[in-house]
Amino acid sequence: MKVLITRDIPHNGIAKLKQFPELELDTRTGPPLAKEELIKGVSDADAVLVVIPDKVDKDVIAAGTKLKLIACYSVGYDHVDTDYAKSKGIFVSNTPGDLTEAVAEHAFALMMAVGRRIVEADFFVRDGHYKYWDPLIFLGPKMMGKTLGIVGFGRIGQHLARMAQNGLHMDILYTDIRKAGKETSGVNATQVSMEELLARSDIVSLHCNLTEETKYMINANTLKLMKPYAILINTARGPVVHEAALTEALKNNWVAGAGLDVFENEPKVHPELLKLPNVILTPHIASATREARIQMAGMAVDNVIEVLIKNNQPLNWVNK
Ligand code: DGY
Fold first, then answer.
1. pLDDT tens-digit profile of 69-92?
2. Bridge partners of 171?
3. CA of 253 to the centre of ligand 1 (A)
4. 3-state class of 24 per DSSP?
5. Whole-prediction pTM value?
6. What's the CATH number for 100-281?
7. Topology of domain 2-96+290-309, per CATH?
8. Is 36 assigned a catalytic role?
9. In the chain, where are the structural domains located?
10. Residue 98: closest CA among 259, 308, 300, 312
């Protein structure tokens, strides 16, 4: 049985698969596969392990005539046409829970870095502008006691809430479109409407899935509801934010700053964002702790083993 692994992933995953001689591994390295290569690769594969840049659309799925499983090396699976896969009887799996701390920590880091203008200040020093101490440069907000609004109060949102509340005594507001009055552990948080969250929060951090409902949820209208000195953090999915509207907001001081790990047309970044000093941009690395990436590899291949070797449903089946 052939398993296509579209990118180099931590080798604990490959080593696990190698324990099964009945599996033939087609492991690819280098940049993401072009669509034609992906189609060719899946055409004789029994399972494919895909990463975020692999767009697993109808053409790719239809080419996988033997395909039993599309195993995402990610929690998000908006890059896979899960409904079409289901119509073909193909399982889709993900790796939930493996990157909770990693993503929450990255959101926290972006929040602090934007607020305290760390990247701007670093460039200032490197560019030779640090000639004397100045009482008025790089002023930012005190973070202690501020209000943090979390959009999407799942595992990651709640972990960030705990860090912000335990570490910085922040007040936590949240919205969650899927569940009212979510169970929360170890954090005192108040569920409010989106409008109230945007109007009251000093920092807004996005942790929702990308769906029809959340696409462009942050747009010109919603950005104008935010406080002029508020900070927006996005470690969820790029299209949740209308990037052109955000550039306007950052230029016209509707908001004070933003920290973005994900982009509307990844890996392309809106050209205006690249010019703005009040935004920090990272290349979709929120899950990039060694621990999380190793755990992701283990979980992704466990799904492959479950389906191909044990003839079961995947452990983390998302297109039921
Ligand atoms: C995910 O898993 O969905 C992240 O965006 C990438 O690790």
1. 999 999 999 999 999 999 999 999
2. 147
3. 30
4. strand
5. 0.95
6. 3.40.50.720
7. Rossmann fold (3.40.50)
8. no
9. 2-96+290-309, 100-281
10. 300
